[in-house]
Write a structure and sequence with these properties.
The protein is globular. The protein has one domain: TIM Barrel, CATH 3.20.20.80. It has twelve helices and nine strands. It is of the alpha/beta class. Strands 7-6-5-4-3-2-1-9-8 form a nine-stranded parallel β-sheet.
């Protein structure tokens, strides 16, 4: 019966009619700022169908917290882990090193930082502690938590990095593998061939350990906060396993510390502009991979972030409902849209967003 109801709702969406209620969808969100323009005078945002907003940690203050509470919505902070490139100005040794032994140029302008740099890690953890202690947010979502790369485009750029001296020393210490005294170019070849699987596993473990420490900070500072992650929407086999082998994202290992997975299936940006069903296919894969069904009481949740703003390719107003339909199918129990500034610039997309959110109903958690 559940499958039939979802199919029926999808048919109504495609036919231009309002979808049926989807009580399993507990979060209906907007990413990228406070959508004040969406609220009529004397009204509240929750009455427009939205019950959560996601804002960059640097834009969260007491005034925004008060506004969110008055609007009846949850406030979640996006927290940048590996893309706070301003740190490199005074700490150039934190730049990721490539196979040539030199700092790797930022792929298409996306500058990352070496995850094994202890000073950078302390700096980011201190920033997280300050954020969580300062403002009563409802949760933290990790962003850019992967190796230096630009995968958010039709053809991703994913150089091999991680060959910093301190990273190589730590790899040897933690794995018991002794590397020869040789130039980085030779060591990189050795790690990407002979020791490839152990190297990839160790790299993934470094990123997972960041998530472990972040979970511990939240639990110690403000217990009960949700911890989510914005992550690449690929499956474990897409692009020859690049999710793990290149980006160093081990979703199953990170699941020990996370509450919510928010894949980023930006269908138009990633070459699926005419195929919004790609969104639900990727979310379905994720649910199967992690054992998440979208049922009440599950330990983990999937809340995808879907593309409504124009980025690379245009998302027409007439496609809004279809995109949201695919983003809110089980195993997803929440959905949010990317992003508010893009929607504000194309206000014709706001009414169908509002209508869809109001129609599917649900309650914030």
């Amino acid at each position: 019966m559940l499958a039939l109801s979802v199919v029926a709702a999808s048919c109504l969406v495609l036919a231009g009619a309002a979808p049926e209620a989807r009580p399993w969808v507990q979060m209906r969100g907007i990413y990228g700022g406070a959508p004040r323009e969406m609220v009529p005078a004397g009204g509240r945002l929750v009455d427009q169908g939205v019950n959560a907003i996601f804002v960059g940690s640097g834009g969260i203050n007491d005034e925004l917290v008060t506004w969110a509470r008055e609007q009846g919505v949850k406030l979640y902070a996006e927290f940048n882990t590996m893309h706070a490139a301003e740190y490199l100005k005074d700490h150039p040794d934190a730049a990721p090193v490539g196979v040539d032994g030199q700092p790797c140029p930022p792929p298409d302008g996306w500058q990352g930082v070496a995850p094994a740099h202890e000073g950078y890690r302390r700096w980011r953890m201190d920033a997280l502690r300050e954020l969580v202690a300062r403002v009563p947010i409802d949760g933290v979502w990790l962003d850019y938590h992967h190796s230096q790369a630009n995968w958010e485009q039709p053809e991703p750029a994913m150089p091999d990095t991680g060959f910093e001296p301190y990273s190589l020393a730590r790899f040897q210490q933690e794995t018991g593998i002794t590397l020869p005294a040789a130039p980085v170019t030779r060591l990189a070849r050795l790690l990407l061939t002979t020791h490839r699987e152990r190297w990839i596993r160790w790299r993934c473990d470094v990123f997972t350990d960041w998530v472990r420490e972040i979970r511990a900070i939240l639990d110690a500072t403000r217990p009960g906060l949700l911890l989510g992650t914005f992550h690449c929407p690929w499956s474990d086999t897409d692009r020859d396993g690049a999710l793990r082998n290149k980006l160093c994202i081990d979703l199953k290992a990170q699941a020990r510390y996370l509450d919510v997975f928010s894949p980023m299936p930006y269908h138009a940006r990633f070459g699926h502009a005419t195929d919004p069903a790609w969104i639900s296919r990727q979310v379905t894969w994720l649910g199967g991979y992690l054992g998440i069904r979208g049922e009440p009481g599950e330990r983990h949740r999937i809340w995808p972030i879907v593309q409504l703003a124009d980025w690379g390719e245009t998302v027409a107003a007439g496609q809004v409902a279809e995109v949201l339909d695919h983003g809110s199918r089980r195993p997803a129990t929440g959905v949010m849209v990317f992003h508010w500034s893009g929607l504000a610039a194309r206000p014709e997309k706001i009414p169908p967003l509002r209508e869809f959110y109001l129609a599917i109903g649900g309650a914030a958690r």
